[in-house]
From TrEMBL:
<feature type="transmembrane region" description="Helical">
    <location>
        <begin position="56"/>
        <end position="80"/>
    </location>
</feature>
<feature type="transmembrane region" description="Helical">
    <location>
        <begin position="250"/>
        <end position="272"/>
    </location>
</feature>
<keyword id="KW-1003">Cell membrane</keyword>
<dbReference type="InterPro" id="IPR001640">
    <property type="entry name" value="Lgt"/>
</dbReference>
<feature type="transmembrane region" description="Helical">
    <location>
        <begin position="131"/>
        <end position="151"/>
    </location>
</feature>
<feature type="transmembrane region" description="Helical">
    <location>
        <begin position="27"/>
        <end position="44"/>
    </location>
</feature>
<protein>
    <recommendedName>
        <fullName>Phosphatidylglycerol--prolipoprotein diacylglyceryl transferase</fullName>
        <ecNumber>2.5.1.145</ecNumber>
    </recommendedName>
</protein>
<feature type="transmembrane region" description="Helical">
    <location>
        <begin position="220"/>
        <end position="238"/>
    </location>
</feature>
<dbReference type="GO" id="GO:0042158">
    <property type="term" value="P:lipoprotein biosynthetic process"/>
</dbReference>
<keyword id="KW-0472">Membrane</keyword>
<comment type="pathway">
    <text>Protein modification; lipoprotein biosynthesis (diacylglyceryl transfer).</text>
</comment>
<keyword id="KW-1133">Transmembrane helix</keyword>
<dbReference type="GO" id="GO:0005886">
    <property type="term" value="C:plasma membrane"/>
</dbReference>
<keyword id="KW-0808">Transferase</keyword>
<comment type="function">
    <text>Catalyzes the transfer of the diacylglyceryl group from phosphatidylglycerol to the sulfhydryl group of the N-terminal cysteine of a prolipoprotein, the first step in the formation of mature lipoproteins.</text>
</comment>
<feature type="transmembrane region" description="Helical">
    <location>
        <begin position="195"/>
        <end position="213"/>
    </location>
</feature>
<dbReference type="GO" id="GO:0008961">
    <property type="term" value="F:phosphatidylglycerol-prolipoprotein diacylglyceryl transferase activity"/>
</dbReference>
Length: 328
């Protein structure tokens, strides 16, 4: 027998998902995502500077990576829910389709799309700043999981992406009636709080990545590879019990396939990078883009980098002294 929503041992959903400040409507969904991005930036900055990178070079990279990640996340969601947006012969100019695609605050962004587009943006940002791409990826990995954990609370405020009905004491209450309420289920039905499962899993993942990265000095993208495996493995489970609409291929939801691909790609990166780079990274910067010690200018200013192809200043001093003595 399913617990009713009046049972004390359950998780209530927030009664509001937004509030107004003058003419602006602030959505908690967006605030959760923004808070996650900020937290990830702080953690990544700390980890990058510990490796010897310029303080806050992460901001330069994020200026490119974050917008692309958001665009990619939305596009991936639309593509993997194609039948929802374009069923019944709808075309892209249909008012419903246009509103549904652009109203990101109503939910519907996919982390796997964010990873793909964000990786392109991060690569461009690293090329701009001179930071090694894999150094940045490893520094980002724990912060990325932290951002995902914080962002999942947005689904709680939106009352979306919950799982199958359950009689467990931590079942999630959903407002009734609700546009996403499964047909045929009575009022008072409780659901698996898949957002909470993912929050817990991702938080444990942050601790694991911080520990394993320090314990085994994982570099050259191997820590990021473990991030892909950890997150994707959990996502396979949570995605399998969700009941929100999704396209299905060969019996599995599209995001389950994406998560399986994430595990495979993560394992491949780990193995390949371990074989290609058995040693440690010599610097967080690419050759020729090393940061001068004590440099205080912006990372994109090439005057702040040491030209490693030139001999050190001490050699010029020694040559000058030798020439002076010889001339006497």
């Amino acid at each position: 027998m399913l617990f009713s929503a009046s049972v004390v041992a359950s998780i209530p959903s927030p009664s509001i998902s937004s509030f107004s400040v003058g003419p602006l409507t602030i959505h908690f969904y967006a605030l959760c995502i923004l808070a996650g991005i900020i937290a990830a930036a702080f953690l990544t900055n700390r980890r990058l500077t510990a490796r010897g990178a310029e303080p806050w070079v992460v901001i330069d990279i994020c200026l490119i990576a974050v917008p692309l990640a958001i665009i990619g996340a939305r596009l991936f969601h639309v593509v993997t829910h194609w039948s929802y947006y374009f069923d019944q012969g709808r075309e892209w100019w249909n008012p419903f389709v246009k509103d549904a695609i652009w109203n990101v605050w109503d939910g519907g962004i996919a982390i796997f799309g964010a990873l793909i587009a964000g990786a392109v943006g991060a690569w461009l940002g690293c090329k701009w700043t001179g930071v090694r791409f894999w150094t940045f990826a490893d520094a980002l990995a724990p912060g990325l999981l932290l951002a995902q954990a914080m962002g999942r609370f947005g689904n709680w405020f939106n009352q979306e992406l919950y799982g199958l009905p359950t009689d467990l004491p931590w079942g999630l209450q959903i407002s009734y009636p609700n546009p996403a309420w499964p047909a045929g289920l009575p009022e008072g039905t409780l659901f698996h709080p898949t957002f909470l499962y993912e929050v817990i899993w991702n938080t444990l993942g942050v601790l694991f990545l911080l520990w394993v990265g320090k314990r085994f000095t994982l570099q050259w993208g191997r820590l990021f590879a473990l991030y892909l495996v950890w997150y994707s493995a959990g996502r396979i489970v949570w995605e399998s019990i969700r009941i929100d609409p999704s396209d299905v291929f060969f019996g599995l939801r599209t995001n389950v396939w994406a998560a399986i691909a994430g595990v495979v790609v993560g394992l491949a990166i780990f193995v390949v990078q371990k074989r290609r780079h058995p040693g440690l990274e010599p610097s967080p910067y690419r050759p020729g883009r090393e940061r001068a010690v004590g440099g205080a200018v912006q990372s994109q200013n090439t005057d702040d980098f040491v030209d490693v192809s030139a001999p050190p200043a001490s050699e010029f001093v020694a040559d000058a002294a030798t020439s002076t003595v010889a001339s006497k």
